[in-house]
Design brief:
With 290 residues, the protein is α/β, with parallel strands linked by helices. It has a single domain (2-288), classed as Dihydropteroate synthase-like (TIM Barrel, Alpha-Beta Barrel). It is 38% helix and 14% strand. It has helices spanning 37-50, 71-85, 99-107, 133-139, 166-183, 203-211, 213-217, 231-237, 253-265, 276-288; strands spanning 2-4, 9-11, 16-22, 54-58, 92-95, 112-115, 144-148, 191-194, 224-225, 270-273. Helix 9 packs across helix 10. The longest helix has 18 residues, at 166-183. It is globular, with a radius of gyration of 17 Å.
């Protein structure tokens, strides 16, 4: 199985580690650490040194309760880092839901659009003729796309989480959305699916998605798992307090690595993580028994 991106064809026969680069002041675990361009680029280089296969740049937090960021501010944070990151020789993903930002980063050479809204977001202030996210990626000759499931929106998703069995709901939504992209001419090989751990689901629902992840992997699309430092891990560990680490190992790091390992065992092709070195080491142990 392969993932076609703008500049790279990723062989997913072995799981790939996506390193997270939050260029934000308010992300739930490392907000403000890499807001400066030079700090963000140093972090990119460190993640690659630690073994990351690709990087995911994000300039707007989508943590529960996060407020929307104006497009011009997202571009101001993102583009200077992206201009340099695309020179690092690895696929660069951009975590955004705004079509205007998608177009700008693809024009600069980004390889993957990673969208928590699964290309459904529309700007209420724009004219009806404005291009949608679907149209932007469909017009591109080869960018990779990650479609994520999110219930409601960041401001409200945890105030009224999903109800019932989430596995068929999430799976059906993602397969339908991927089918819509294929109908627009997007090659299947460009599409990866993300069940959206923590985005409008309860703790039990998140773990149900992990336990039954093979239902989604059986769709034939590669699956990206994003468990890193999520609050559901803190819940099972009975950890209270903020998600920062105050300079030491992150209190959710071990649980995050365990969740990434379990996701790969259940068929995930890509894991999106903060703790790259530790995840790479754990995956090496898993690979040794195979």
């Amino acid at each position: 199985m392969f993932w076609q991106t703008s500049r790279f064809l990723l062989d997913l026969a072995s799981p790939k580690v996506m390193g997270i680069v939050n260029i934000t002041p308010d992300s739930f675990t490392d907000g403000g650490q890499y807001l400066d361009v030079h700090a963000a680029l140093r972090h990119c280089e460190q993640l690659l040194s630690d073994g990351a296969d690709l990087l995911d740049l994000g300039a707007e937090s989508t943590r529960p309760g996060a407020q929307p960021l104006p497009t011009d501010e997202e571009l101001r944070r993102l583009l200077p880092v992206l201009r340099e990151a695309v020179k690092l020789g690895v696929p660069i993903s951009v975590d955004t839901y705004k079509p205007q930002v998608m177009q700008a980063v693809l024009d600069l050479g980004a390889d993957i659009i990673n969208d928590v809204w699964a290309l459904r977001w529309t700007d209420p202030s724009s004219a009806h003729t404005a291009a949608s996210g679907q149209q932007v990626v469909a017009a591109h000759p080869g960018c990779g796309i990650c479609l994520m499931h999110m219930h409601r929106e960041p401001q409200t998703m945890q105030l009224a989480p999903m109800v019932g069995d989430v596995v068929p709901q999430v799976t059906d939504f993602l397969i339908l959305t991927a089918g819509e992209l294929e109908a627009l001419g997007v090659a299947r090989q460009r599409i990866v699916l993300d069940p959206g751990i923590g985005f409008g689901k309860t703790v039990a629902q998140n773990f149900s998605l992990l336990a039954q992840q093979q239902v989604l992997t059986s769709s034939g699309f590669p699956v990206l798992a994003g468990w890193s430092r999520k609050s559901s891990l803190a819940a099972v560990l009975d950890l209270a307090g903020p998600a920062d680490s105050s300079g030491g190992p992150h209190p959710r790091m071990i649980a995050s690595v365990a969740a990434a390992l379990l996701a790969v065992e259940r068929g995930a092709a890509v894991v999106r993580v903060h703790d790259v070195r530790e995840t790479v080491q754990a995956l090496a142990v898993l690979n040794a028994i195979k």
